[in-house]
Amino acid sequence: MESGRLAHVIAVLLVVLKSCSSESAPEEVAPTPANPPVTEHYLAPTDDILARDVAPDFTFAVWDSNGKICILAKFSASFKITYPSLGGEEHISVNVPEDAKVKGRCGTFDREPLLELSWTGFRLFMAFTVVNPKEKQDTWELLSMELLYDTTNPLFDGATNVGKKTVRTLEDGLFATQYGKSYFCPSPDVIPMYNSEKEKMVLARMKDVHLQVYDVQMGKFSPFQRCSLVRIGGLPEPFAQDETVPIAVGSTLAVMAVLVVIGYALWRNLATRKADYDFME
């Protein structure tokens, strides 16, 4: 009886020891396979992201959020500025540099496009508009042009009443152009600019003006509408001249000159013959 109970206890102990040894034994870990190659996936580039219009050489350009040019401008300009000094009125001339910094805002039919050029001590703003957009009159023009400067600048030698100044145009209808076309003029009229007291303080002279502020296609100027007048030696002359008139006048003068020469030759011939006849008598 006692021996049977002892055998049973020993059997239970063996089972417990076996189970403990199996739990404490380290599990075999399967070898970790090499990391699989990682393929990097990129978004395919789209034309909208990369197709930023390239501005033509020597132009001032404004881009929209899609990289498309919405304003193109190419011109040279100088401003003759009058300012008071201790010795009376003085004048300086300032040119827009080719490397002026460009800012701007694209325009729509209900928002005016803006072009801003800035350089040391000066800022030039040009605002444009569509004429009567509700009536669908497809014409755009210069709404206003402003020049900001500071007479504390050393350029204004001996200036009195120094400080920041703003002058702007008062004339309407400048650079009027058919919608979808660019404006071109070799030498527009001189543009006066006035201070807040309506005193003329600046004269703007522009040359070789090429502008387009609406419907720019592929970053290039559209076919241009040329101004009606150009200036030669400071005097306005019509650009589109009818060549028929000067040709007709020149031809008439040439014929008259030939007739005068022939008439004079005939008169001399007759006069000589008459003199010879009188001498013989």
From TrEMBL:
The keyword Signal applies. One of its GO terms (biological process) is establishment of protein localization to organelle. InterPro entries: Lysosome-assoc_membr_glycop (IPR002000). Coiled coil: none annotated. Keywords: Glycoprotein, Membrane, Signal, Transmembrane, Transmembrane helix. It is a single-pass type I membrane protein. Belongs to the LAMP family. This is Lysosome-associated membrane glycoprotein 5. It comes from Trichonephila clavata. The gene is X975_11354.
